[in-house]
Amino acid sequence: MRVGRAPVGLSTASVYPHTCADAFGMAADLGYDGVEVMVWTDPVSQDVAALARLSEHYDVPVLAIHAPTLLVTQRVWGKDPWPKLDRSCEMAVQLGARTVVAHPPFRWQREYAAGFVDGVERISQQYGVALAVENMYPWRARQREMLAYLPGWDPLPQPYRDVTLDLSHSATAGVDGLELAEALGDRLAHLHLADGSGSAKDEHLVPGRGSQPCDRVLELLAQRDFAGTVVVEVNTRRARNRSEREADLAESLAFARLHLAAAPEAVRPDAGRPEALLPEALRSGAVRSDAVAPEGAAGAR
Question: Would the pLDDT of 145 be above 80?
Fold first, then answer.
């Protein structure tokens, strides 16, 4: 039984280069509460009927949809960004997901950017879902920052109703994720749980392997009785096999569950590790019990 109010989902991007269908299977095996579907070049990720069948087969709900607004998904569902948001919200409604994640426009999408803030609010109200705009980071080249996003990479000064906080992105931006979470207040609707070392590269490390205060962000959400969704979005491409990939995903889930479980003083590393909070893969010994460690203890990979 899940402890704590916020469900912990698995992003289908976390299993890449495995498929969207594989993500449903891994989420079920490891005990995740659901998935966030990254709409990608994988045809299954674009097919509502196929996703509904996977959700039913594995008994894993779709908690969120990530719209194809990344640089590498510019041609998915055509080049016009507005229909991408509409279609993503339609998919969310059909699958029972309450959140759609979107990136802010790129600087060359000037017409789209000019109406983005108002458009996001309009579409969100039209479909009755949280269209949560994600924090990004400045692009850096030769010690210079480039204006990559409009109206900007930082959602804090923008009047978005709903925001997705990505802790890997905050690391790349040189921002303290806890301070950003506190400043966003009730506008924080969705969390991408990952870590980063502060590199200019968007790392998406397993939480606890970087420098972001992932544990304290989760504890803040527990204090707030957070009603949004926590989604593990980590990079497992270096895993040599499925077993290693699932070990990273099990560790990430255990980290999230421990720090969402109770008041902060009850989930500090020296307070013990309640067995009931850990996924089956961890309790059975498939993953080391010491993998759930204080932040940074495992070291960045």
Answer: no
